[in-house]
Amino acid sequence: QVQLVESGGGLVQPGGSLRLSCAASGFTKDFYSIGWFRQAPGKEREGVSCFKGSDLTTYYADSVKGRFTISRDNAKNTVYLQMINLKPEDTAVYFCAAGPWGSECHPISYDYWGQGTQVTVFS
To answer: How do 10-12 and 46-51 pair as beta strands?
Structure first.
């Protein structure tokens, strides 16, 4: 059974930093796409950053480029999202998700989801 467990969310002031973690387990395939998504109140879920392909090509939403960094530790089956210079508009529930290898960073392409972790940037 595939499981994705996020952690690391919290409250932070603008300009602050957080690192989200996603511990993955239960995958029967060695390779899959994995990434981070977020959903703010009243808005659709959107792709934030994903590993897309076999060369670990990464995708970043324009709104987070230069501020967020996705990374992975294969030995720990964990994916991270380092977030710096956080802004109030980054406030959302952040989800880790996994899908077929090569998936675009769009929620519709992903099959497995974590429970989400809340990130709140308050001024």
So the answer is: unpaired
pLDDT of residue 55: 62
Convert the pLDDT of each residue in 59-118 to its tens digit.
999 999 999 999 999 899 999 999 999 999 999 999 999 988 888 899 999 999 999 999
Determine the Cα–Cα distance for residues 96 and 100; give it in Å rounded to an integer. Answer: 14
Pairing of strands 18-25, 3-7: antiparallel
String of b and e for 9-39 (b: at least 16 CB within 10 Å)? beebeeeeebebbbbbeebeeeebbbbbbbe
Using CA atoms, how far apart are residues 85 and 66, in angstroms rounded to an integer? Answer: 9
Give the Cα-Cα-Cα angle 86, 67, 56 (nearest 5 degrees).
Answer: 135
Both tokens of 107, joined, read: 């929620």
